Amino acid sequence: MTMALVVGGLFATGVYLMLQRSLMRTLLGLILLGHGTNLLLLVSGGAPGDPPVVPEGASGDGDRFADPLPQAMALTAIVITFGITTFLLALAYRSWRLAGHDEVRDDIEDRRIGTVGERADAEPAALPPDDPAPDVPAPEDPAPDGGPR
Q1: Which residues does 71 contact at the CB level (< 8 Å), separation at least 6?
Q2: DSSP category for residue 147
């Protein structure tokens, strides 16, 4: 029961931190999620037993051996968490060097598309069926040379 509460606490704290706007808090949340996953995998392996490798000629009871699969999964999760952690740490450092802070800003284009979608959902009968939405700009003419502007 105690381990289930610890795993649940690690997951809850990790998810809470990952929902923050600061990249360092997101990084710490990812680390906590990784630790929670590793603990969950090791706890799911059951009680510790003898090593999974049996020497030649040794006879033993099959119930005393540990299951190696959760250990292998935990090792894989450690490697994946380490790789993602180093990537996010590099992103946070780059953001700090360029902007002087590590907060993720709102994307103006995403906000504009979201407000157009909200208005279209709220008032579907307000626009004639063949007219485009009023906030959606007309497509731009291509550049004279055929390339991007």
Answers
A1: 42, 45, 52
A2: S
Cβ atoms of residues 99 and 23 within 8 Å: no
User: Is there a domain that residue 84 lies in?
Assistant: yes
DSSP 3-43: HHHHHHHHHHHHHHHHTSSBHHHHHHHHHHHHHHHHHHHHH
Quick: pLDDT tens for 124-135: 555 555 555 555
User: What is the spatial distance between Cα 115 and Cα 109, in angstroms, rounded to a whole number?
Assistant: 10
Structural domain boundaries enclosing 13: 2-48+67-99
SS3 65: strand
17 assigned to some structural domain: yes
* Residues 88/90/91/97 CA torsion (nearest 10 deg): 150
| Domain total of the chain | 1
DSSP label of 49: -
Does residue 60 fall inside a structural domain? no
- Residue 130 belongs to a domain: no
Q: Other CB atoms closer than 10 Å to residue 137's CB: what's the count?
A: 8
Global pTM reads: 0.60
pLDDT tens column, 77-115: 899 999 999 998 998 888 888 888 878 777 788 788 878
